[in-house]
Design brief:
The structure is a single chain. With 142 residues, the protein is α+β, with helices and mostly antiparallel strands. Helices cover 46% and strands 24% of the residues. It has three helices and five strands; from the N terminus they run H-H-H-E-E-E-E-E. A five-stranded mixed beta barrel has the order 1-2-3-5-4. Strand 2 and strand 3 form a beta hairpin. The protein is rod-shaped.
């Protein structure tokens, strides 16, 4: 049984697709596309040197072009704030007078102990404050 070269290239593409799925490393997908390009080259009747050259050029071009674009998109995506990080920057309502030594606020539906960022500031009940930090179980407000 004599298998054509283009079939071997497709087998190689599938072989490169398996680690892509298992490891989620996109480089394997780029090499698989290069293998498909090698299969097309083989199907068109070009020799082994041309097939390998097309595989290498397509694979390297995809890695060189697609990887930096994907990295920019991945790094540019804002992260999802959770826990106390999600509370920073939110507004709260003063329940008990808040000054540099303490007080109480209602933040995200819960009652929190609070203190002001500037020890000279005072907030009276009913005022809106901004949470700038969480220090242990105390919200730091301004």
């Amino acid at each position: 049984m004599d298998i054509d070269a283009w079939v071997w290239w497709l087998i190689g593409a599938v072989g490169l697709g398996i680690p892509l799925v298992l490891t989620a490393m996109p480089e394997f997908g780029m090499f698989a596309v290069g293998a498909v390009a090698g299969a097309v080259t083989a199907a068109l009747g070009f020799g082994v040197v041309a097939q390998v050259l097309v595989f290498v050029v397509v694979s390297v071009a995809l890695v060189a072009v697609v990887r930096p674009i994907a990295a920019r998109h991945r790094d540019g995506r804002p992260g999802l704030a959770t826990g106390i990080d999600a509370l920073k920057g939110r507004q709260a309502v003063v329940l008990e007078r808040v000054d540099g030594s303490g007080g109480r606020i209602k933040l995200a539906g819960e009652v929190w102990s609070a203190r002001t960022l500037d020890s000279g500031q005072v907030f009276e009940p009913g005022e809106q404050v901004d949470v700038v930090d969480i220090d242990g179980a105390t919200a730091v407000v301004m």
